[in-house]
Structures are given as structure tokens and as C-alpha cells.
Design goal:
Structural class of chain B: alpha/beta
Radius of gyration of chain B: 17 Å
Largest interface: A-B, 59 and 58 residues
Strand order of the largest sheet of chain A: 1-2-3
Number of helices of chain B: 4
Strand content of chain A: 15-25%
Structural class of chain A: alpha/beta
Mean pLDDT of chain B: 95
Oligomer: heterodimer
Shape of chain B: globular
Number of helices of chain A: 3
Number of strands of chain B: 7
Largest sheet of chain B: 5 strands, mixed
Distance between the termini of chain A: 32 Å
Number of domains of chain A: 1
Mean pLDDT of chain A: 95
Radius of gyration of chain A: 14 Å
Low-confidence stretches of chain B: none
Low-confidence stretches of chain A: none
Helix content of chain B: 25-40%
Shape of chain A: globular
Number of strands of chain A: 3
Chain lengths: 94, 156
């Protein structure tokens, strides 16, 4: 709808599986827990870094429906222990 | 491998069937023609957030939207979305709505300008036909009025 009016869009999201199903015109994947797309609370430099990566990626979308991985890890050591915590949080808070 | 959200959503929906993900009825694509440093940028969020002085969103099927000033100095942000993952972003809405980061990137010369208004609506509504026929066109119109060159959509 927005693209049809001549305005390019970029979805910046954490849920690769959902973006794969919905197929936005352009999508940037951030490998962070849902609800923390731009980093942990009160970390402005991290917010800026993720957003800048997403923005500079815009020119790299050469065809509709691409999902580009921004290469953002949640943990500095690459650990994925956050997944277990997130799963518990999502099931608990439901 | 990326974390998989759909199985958890299905588990949370049970015994009801999982939510159906809906694609737009018409796919559109518009090439990026302006460089970033000349582009006017707006944020769109499905977090149902607003500045404190604006009327609250009413979960779960609210189809209204709010114009959120892009100047971070204009009031703190409140998140009305009912999602269970809200506890962390409600501590700091900037992690799902990077209004301050966007203003910082403007001051660093990465962007041409900011839309005076960003836009917020309720994600996860089931009235998808009304979203496509009413909410999306209204938001698209707002973006054209604000002369936006690039819209960043952050799902909540």
C-alpha cells in the first residue's frame, strides 16, 4: 500500500520466520529477542548502531521480497542462551 | 539458525488454531531512488505506543493510529500493546521505537531530514481486511503528506 504510493519501506524485525511468511517488500533481520529490536534498554549507542546498519542496508535490496541479515548478535560472545529465556518469557507471559 | 516464533505462537494459541499470517492482497515494490543523506525518513510501529498526552489505544482490535512527534524532547512514550513481551520495551520504548537514535543519525548527517511525525498503530489485530482497507491507506496518505522518502516499519 505504502510502496504503491511511491514510498519505499524497510521492515526491521527480529522474527525471521514470520517475515519469511509475510514477505514484506524489504526486510532487515536483527537477531535479537522480540521486543528488543534495537538492543537492551537504555543502550543508546547500540540503538544507533543497529539502526544505522539497517539504514545503510537499504541500497542493497535489489529485488522485492528480500530479507537481509544485518549480522547483529544479541550477546557479545555469540551465545544463544537468550533463546531459552525468551521462550520461557513468551510462554509465561501469555 | 534464527529463533522460531511461530511454534510458540501456535502453542500460546492452543486449543484455538494459530493466528493466520496475512499477506497484502496486492504486492507493491517501489525502488529507492534518493540517497539516504537526501531522504526524509519516518518510523512506523505496531507497538500501539503514543505520547502520554494522547488518548490510549484500546486492546485488542483498535484500528486507530497516533501521530507521534519525531522530536524526542516532546514527551515520554507509553506502550499500550497487550503483548506479553512488553515488560522490557515498556522500560525503554526506544528499543522498539528508536526515535532518539534516528534523531542522532540525522545530526550525524546520515539522513536528509525526519518526518515531523512518526506513526503508531496496534499490531496483531485480527480485522485484517479493515487494516488493509482503512488503516493502511490512512497511514500511506499521512506519509505522502509528510513528503516521506523512506518509511521504516518496526513490528512489535
Amino acid at each position: 500500500m505504502i510502496e504503491a504510493l511511491g514510498i519505499p519501506t524497510l521492515v526491521i524485525g527480529t522474527a525471521y520466520d514470520i517475515m519469511s511468511k509475510v514477505v514484506p517488500p524489504r526486510a532487515a533481520f536483527v537477531d535479537h529477542p522480540v521486543g528488543r529490536t534495537f538492543g537492551p534498554p537504555h543502550d543508546r549507542e547500540r540503538n544507533i548502531a543497529v539502526l544505522a546498519k539497517a539504514l545503510t542496508e537499504v541500497a542493497q535490496f535489489t529485488q522485492p521480497g528480500m530479507i537481509r541479515d544485518l549480522g547483529c548478535d544479541w550477546s557479545s560472545d555469540g551465545s544463544r542462551s537468550w533463546e531459552q529465556e525468551l521462550r520461557a518469557e513468551m510462554l509465561r507471559e501469555h | 539458525m534464527a529463533f522460531e516464533y511461530l511454534p510458540i505462537m501456535a502453542q500460546n494459541s492452543a486449543p484455538k488454531p494459530p493466528r493466520v499470517l496475512v499477506k497484502p492482497s496486492k504486492f507493491a515494490w517501489c525502488a529507492v531512488t534518493k540517497p539516504l543523506f537526501q531522504s526524509r525518513v519516518a518510523l512506523l510501529t505496531s507497538a500501539a505506543l503514543r505520547v502520554e498526552s494522547q488518548p490510549p489505544f484500546v486492546p485488542r482490535e483498535d484500528l486507530s493510529y497516533r501521530r507521534v512527534p519525531s522530536d524526542p524532547a516532546i514527551g515520554p512514550i507509553v506502550i499500550d500493546h497487550h503483548s506479553g513481551i512488553g515488560a522490557v520495551p515498556k522500560q525503554d520504548p526506544e528499543i522498539v521505537f528508536p526515535r532518539t537514535a534516528l534523531a542522532s543519525l540525522l545530526s550525524r548527517g546520515l539522513l536528509g531530514s525526519l518526518s515531523p511525525r512518526h506513526f503508531s498503530f496496534m499490531g496483531g489485530v485480527r480485522k485484517t481486511e479493515q487494516v488493509e482497507k482503512e488503516l493502511a491507506p490512512a497511514l500511506a496518505y499521512e506519509l505522502t503528506q509528510a513528503k516521506v522518502d523512506l518509511a521504516l516499519l518496526v513490528p512489535y
